[in-house]
Amino acid sequence: MVQYCVAYGCKNLHGKGGSIHFHSFPFKRPEILQLWLTAIRRDNWTPSRTSRLCSEHFKETDYLNRPGDSKKILKFDAVVKNTVNEVK
Ligand SMILES: [Zn+2]
C-alpha cells in the first residue's frame, strides 16, 4: 500500500528519498489533533486510521532522541509547522 502525506499541497509519498517519515494522527489527544488539522488546512476533512502526515511538517526538535535507535519517534505534543502555505 502506498502511503502519502495528507497535508494540503504536499506530494510526499512513502519511500521517496527514504528520509521522510510518516506519522499517524494523534487520535488519543484531541487538542493536539485539532492543532494538526488546523495546520494542514484541509476543510471538511476527517483523518482516518490510515491517514499519515510526513516528517516535513515537523521540526527536528519535535522528535525524541533515542541513542542507538534510528526510528524517529515524535514527541507526544509535537505540533505541525505552519509551512503548508509555503508549498508552491
Ligand atoms: Zn507532507
Offer a few descriptive terms.
little secondary structure, two-stranded antiparallel ribbon, 4 strands, binds zinc ion
What does this structure look like?
With 88 residues, the chain is mostly loops. It has one domain (22-86). It is 12% helix and 11% strand. It is built from 1 helix and 4 strands, in the order βαβββ. The strands form 2 sheets. Strands 1-2 form a two-stranded antiparallel ribbon. The chain has a two-stranded antiparallel ribbon with strand order 3-4. The N and C termini lie far apart (27 Å). The model has no long low-confidence stretch (mean pLDDT 82). Zinc ion (ZN) binds next to loops. Keywords: DNA-binding, Metal-binding, Zinc, Zinc-finger. GO terms for molecular function: DNA binding; zinc ion binding. This is THAP-type domain-containing protein.
Which stretches of 5+ consecutive residues score pLDDT under 50? none
Count every helix, treating DSSP H or I runs of 4 or more residues as helices: 1
Number of strands: 4
Q: What's the arrangement of strands in the largest beta sheet?
A: 1-2
Strand content: 5-15%
Which small-molecule ligands are present, each listed once? zinc ion
What is the chain-wise order of helices and strands? EHEEE
Mean pLDDT over the residues = 82
The coarse silhouette is globular
Radius of gyration from the alpha-carbon trace, in angstroms: 13 Å
Number of domains: 1
First-to-last CA distance? 27 Å
Helix content percent band? 10-25%
Structural class: little secondary structure
